[in-house]
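Allow me, if you will, to draw on your knowledge of protein folds for a short while. I have a record of one protein: its chain in single-letter code and its fold written as discrete structure tokens. I should value your view on which stretches of the chain appear to form regular backbone elements. Thank you for your consideration; the sequence and its tokens are set out here:
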Amino acid sequence: MLAAASLGILLMQFFGSILNMPYAGLVLQSVCGAVSAVIWVLLILKAVLFPAQIKSAFRDPILASVAGTFPMAMMALSVYLEEIIGEAAVYLWYAGVVLHAVLIVFFSVRFLREPKLSQVFPSWLVVYVGIVLASITAPYFNQIPVGQICFWFGLAALIPLLPALFVRCMRVVIPEPAKPLVCIFAAPISIILAGYVQSFSSNAYIVSALLAVETIVLILVLLQLPKLLRLSFYPSYAAFTFPFVVTATAYLFGTESLVEAGLISAGWYAVPCMVLLLAFGLVLYVSVRYVQALCRMVSL
């Protein structure tokens, strides 16, 4: 859901500003937005019809943490809604920001009072750093100050959390169903970079440094990707989607910033193009695997 919404926005930007094919971008954005909106509605219906399942999920540190993708998707979908109803879409955006803040408080009270290393997973980054998506989408609603606040919170949370998660993954074996969550490591630096470019007067050297760090992290994740893709299907396959979409977004924003600063040539747009193709392919692949799993469930 989150990956589809974010991918649509990215495709519109890429086809519109880089390839000068706005109509193609609009079509792709509309398809991605429709898919994301349908899943969002289905999740709301699930919460209404099966509240006991939702309540049970919030007792699990993995499920509770990935729940952060729901308010993040609200922020992304509000961008689509803004094109339809105008400024009133900011209420959905604010609802997403507030809901994510509530999740941060809930998650901290429930799982940080007596933290256990075995319960710490890369998905915790979704809770504490995911709110930086507000920094990326804030310019669409002229809410830059709110975006900046979310950026600083996410950055402050990332600094201690990222090394702690690396240590956890090296010391404690991650169960197979949760192994795809390793791909989430590709997301935090990317979302910080994209949020920085969108909500601040970006400094080209800071952008360059963030791009360099993200490139190292991305390479490390890509080295694990073939092995992870050979795993049996699990719902955690969703971790193959948004981290790469937001990485492509960060590369696009970062490249635009450096091209405008005159530090690199327009030929460097080939890099975000390649990452975008990877992200698009993974979102499509995971979507097919989810449909196959759903068909198996229905046949039973």
The mean pLDDT is 92. The CA atoms of residues 66 and 269 lie 31 Å apart. The radius of gyration is 18 Å. Residues 270-299 form the longest helix (30 residues).
